[in-house]
């Protein structure tokens, strides 16, 4: 069983880090004030405001910020300002044993995906494919906050992950499987293949989502997962949205799911709202879930914090 981090409560301290692409200081400050208004204390990593081009600062410095938050006994949650690009470059500089011994809530999506899955694989820590600092603003729908805080601030179990009303999640291949859930952003996961940090899908339930990629690129990425055996190894597949993904050669995202994934005959659920979409379900990476694509349900079977 994976390690559950301690529950987050109002008044707790959140450690803020920038792990990939930099974020404008005005946006950081506005979002931080939103968190403070919610009743949380904020401590800043040394390089939160850094700007080094594509990435905020060096991989070593970004990793140091993360590790300092891990070691700080006052910090209950580590929150990335954003994903962007380059998060995977910090992985060689992390001490996964120290992270295992000091479990914290770590959350994000997009390029944070590779960090979430690596922390589960190498530290046996449940992490959360959920909100980042950029999401703490008045425009964020209540659904997203409800999902987030139910996952990290309650011991509710089991927890059924359901889309908002009028957005249907559908089973394309019927089945019923149980196992740890892994995955996240498709681009980030494919970029890690062939490295020490590539995702382990054997005996796992895999979920994927994507944004701003033409379907020619989605075709390449899904083919790469097939050729690397990742889709054959998994127990079942959950496909989230592909937000703002352009149709190429008359072939849609749904067409690719039907042509590449349905023939695998693994339990397959589609249209889960998570990741880059407007609505964001909170997916606990490493937690045991039940995927029932016959009844169109996804259920987290255990508390994801302690």
From TrEMBL:
Alphabetized UniProt keyword annotations: Carboxypeptidase, Hydrolase, Protease, Serine protease
Source organism, top-level taxon: Bacteria
NADP is among the record's keywords: no
GO MF assignments: carboxypeptidase activity; serine-type peptidase activity
Location of the LD-carboxypeptidase N-terminal domain: 14-129
Residue intervals of the LD-carboxypeptidase C-terminal domain: 178-291
CDD domains, alphabetized: Peptidase_S66 (cd07025)
Entry annotated with the keyword Phosphoprotein: no
Pfam families per record: Peptidase_S66, Peptidase_S66C
Residues at the catalytic site: 110, 209, 276
Listed GO biological process terms: proteolysis
Entry's family note: Belongs to the peptidase S66 family.
Protein name: LD-carboxypeptidase
Natural source organism: Metabacillus sediminilitoris
